[in-house]
């Protein structure tokens, strides 16, 4: 029916004919939408191929292999497929061109590759591969940790310099009714951004001057 009971735009059509055309138009739009979704789903699952993907494994389920319908030809085909899954001694083959790296990563990886290539006969392929991936990460983490410790311990943010890391903590949580509730700390004007200036242990009077009174 027409929206809101309004009259058809074409006076030559009856209400029944107008509703019939509206229903046909809606069905056509819905069909086109469903067809488009079906094509997109097929494109996604088929991965852009012209035919649907399928498994080449013969008798993939154990129920099929234990049934009486499995003939001698099927058993031979299944056996051949299982034997084909075994890799040759030369596999897997590493092709460097399939995993390209930028010059910076190649330069950083070259010393580690040479090191673990030289000790691979002693460690074996398994442990050499594992250590090749773990040792560089551990070494990088250790260098970063040492750099952080050095900056915190020997290069703090004080009034004597303008660099260094500023380390601070959160204020203690105060709950209603506890001791110190609504009692803020009193600060003077020169307490803000002090950077340890007032806690210095060396003052001007601690130094002896070369000039002596006569």
UniProtKB/TrEMBL annotation:
Tell me which Gene Ontology terms the entry assigns under biological process.
Answer: mitochondrial electron transport, NADH to ubiquinone
**What superkingdom heads the lineage?**
Eukaryota
Q: Cite a GO CC annotation.
A: mitochondrion
The molecule here is called: DgyrCDS12652
Species whose genome carries this gene = Dimorphilus gyrociliatus
State the taxonomy lineage: Eukaryota, Metazoa, Spiralia, Lophotrochozoa, Annelida
